[in-house]
Amino acid sequence: MEIYKGKSVFGGIAIGKIRVYRKGKQQVKRQRVTDTDAEMARYRAAKEEAVRQLQGLYEKALKEVGEANAAIFEVHQMMLDDDDYNASVEHIVCSQEVNAEYAVAATGDNFAQMFASMDDDYMKERAADVHDISERLLTILNGADSAAADAGEPAIIAADDLAPSETVQLDKDQVLSFVTVHGSLNSHTAILARTMAIPALIGTPLPLDETVDGRLGIVDGSAGVIYVDPDEATLAAMREKQQAEKQKKELLQTLKGKENITLDGQKVMLYANIGNIKDLATVLQNDAGGIGLFRSEFIYLESDHYPTEEEQFRIYKQVAETMGNKRVIIRTLDIGADKKCDYFGMEPEENPALGYRAIRICLTRPEVFKTQLRALFRASAFGKIAIMYPMITGIQEVRQIKQIAEEVRKELTEQGIAIGDPEQGIMIETPAAVMVSDMLAKEVDFFSIGTNDLTQYTLAIDRQNTKLDAFYDAHHPAILRMISMVVENAHKAGIWAGICGELGADQTLTREFLAMGVDELSVSPGSILPIRKIVLETDVGAYKAGK
Ligand code: PEP
Ligand code: MG
User: Are 10 and 54 part of one and the same domain?
Assistant: First the structure.
């Protein structure tokens, strides 16, 4: 048994085979197609081939391991014929005009999560089967041989590092855990691992060779440890720990449907952060009151071209409709820094985090910005969409944004296209925005504090630099004072203020945030119920008195 220690990104125990991630593999890219009929024909051909393969496996298993064990391959053949599954693939291909691989991966994810969240144990187990058939289809669609399909069991992914664009394209059902050699706690890869609520480690000195690849591994997320080839005693102890965590999670399920209200009657909104429509199932499972941050740039990162108005509209509409009357805050694209898109043709920069990113791109490339705004305004007719602008430093930017948004609203109205009346808010993630938050509050409908960047810019610490993790003190009094100041200024102007950076999920600060009067915490879906528990057990008045 080998033990490697890393830094914990998300807790939990994962037990499974380790798969060393090699760049370029296991990715499902979202590509636009013009001929959706041809794409559906590709899908149907892949399905026929999958049925044929499964029939072969059934016959082989029948001879070798008997009927009872072979039956699973029959079940998989039936699942491939499931009307709902096929209708979902068709709907995604045709309505979003995308490739079959993407539609299969998205459908597989959604169905597997739906099964996994059911009470019935038998139905729960079907999640693995949906995942299996989706993998088989993907392998066939990708033109790989069938042996590879059988290698597709969920695994612990070990990698040197993962760029956000790679992480978003990994098939979520294939990933039990992430363990990376590099990476920093505040990188977007770490954030995505938290969104997926899976155990994850970074900064783990793991050799990415045959001593690890294909071996049995155990990741203990909270202890920050991975065991390779664990001995029997460790395996037994970890299984027990995994069971205990499962029970703890089940207990939290009893908090579903409860209001987020403290013992002395203070309410707080608990929303979810997402990067993809695939995350919606977890948002619903965890009883989020809304979506506090939809990082729309992930739509751009998943794509090989500028997403069109129509493509974006369909995605935003789907989120809005799925969330019904709950607020969905969509942040306009925050490309730049670590989130790079080849087709934006951006030049290398000396200091990308301080560079050409987010709203700076939008304000200098209004055609890109307007396409997204048109999609957002149109989708706002189908639900409670709010638009949020990132990386604001001052009032001039906000006025410019509002002017462009107004032009878009006018254009759409003149064209007779239905639109809603979305709230418009900004992220407070630069020290400048904090210092002028009294002025900014008069211009917008809400504030959401991005503590990841705010900490980076306030403490002058590159959030991507793993060597600086020890210096990245998100509890620094400067940060806490800034949050308090922003909330106060928001309230003076009669608007609400929330936190959507990772600090919002820091359970050691929940009571402090309540004491500051923070109105909303937007966190990874898996953190909602644990925070609700703290809220329900807190007496804010008593906490303030005891400080
Ligand atoms: C933040 O900076 O805190 C934030 C929420 O945005 P991102 O992490 O995507 O930069
Ligand atoms: Mg940010």
Answer: no
Of 110, 197, 525, 522, the closest CA to residue 327 belongs to 522
Kindly list the protein residues whose Cβ atom lies closer than 6 A to any atom of ligand 1. Answer: 293, 295, 334, 429, 450-453, 500-501
Instruction: Specify the residue with its C-alpha closest to ligand 1, atom 9.
Output: 295
Do 203 and 309 lie in one domain? The reply is: no
- Separation of CA 429 and ligand 2 centre (Å): 6
d(CA 302, CA 28): 9
Q: How far apart are CA 516 and CA 539, in angstroms?
A: 13
Amino acid, single-letter form, for residue 56:
G
Residue 248 lies in a domain: no
Q: Which of 381, 429, 422 lies closest to 402 in space, CA to CA?
A: 422
Residue from 192, 300, 392, 429 to probe ligand 1 pocket by mutation (most atoms less than 8 Å from CB): 429
Torsion of CA 523, 524, 529, 530, to 10 degrees: -80
| Phi and psi, residue 438, nearest 5° | -65, -40
Report the CATH number at residue 111: 1.10.274.10
In the annotation, is 182 catalytic? no
Atom of ligand 1 nearest to the CA of 390: 6
What pLDDT, on a 0 to 100 scale, did the predictor assign at position 359? Answer: 96
Expressed in angstroms and rounded, the spacing between residue 452 Cα and the centre of ligand 2 is 6
Sign of CA dihedral 41, 44, 50, 53: negative
Burial of 421 (0-12, 13-18, 19+ CB in 10 A): exposed
Pocket probe for ligand 1: among 273, 354, 427, 434, the residue whose CB has the most ligand atoms within 8 Å is 427
Non-local CB neighbours of 209 within 8 Å, separated by 6+ positions: 20
3-state secondary structure of 199: coil
CB within 8 A of 483, min separation 6: which ones? Answer: 449, 451, 499, 513, 516, 518
> How many angstroms is it from 292 CA to the middle of ligand 1?
12
pLDDT tens-digit map of 390-421: 999 999 999 999 999 999 999 999 999 999 99
Of the bound ligands, which one is closest to the alpha carbon of residue 499? 1
Considering its fold, how many domains does the chain have in total? Answer: 3
In this prediction the pTM is 0.72
Both 224 and 271 in one domain: the answer is no
Active site residue 491: no
266 and 356 co-located in one domain: yes
How confident is the model at residue 501, as a pLDDT?
97
Q: Are strands 13-20 and 216-220 parallel, antiparallel or unpaired?
A: antiparallel
Task: Residue 170: give the domain boundaries.
Answer: 2-21+148-238
Residues of the chain with pLDDT under 50: 24-26, 145-151
Tens of pLDDT along 426-464? Answer: 999 999 999 999 999 999 999 999 999 999 999 999 988
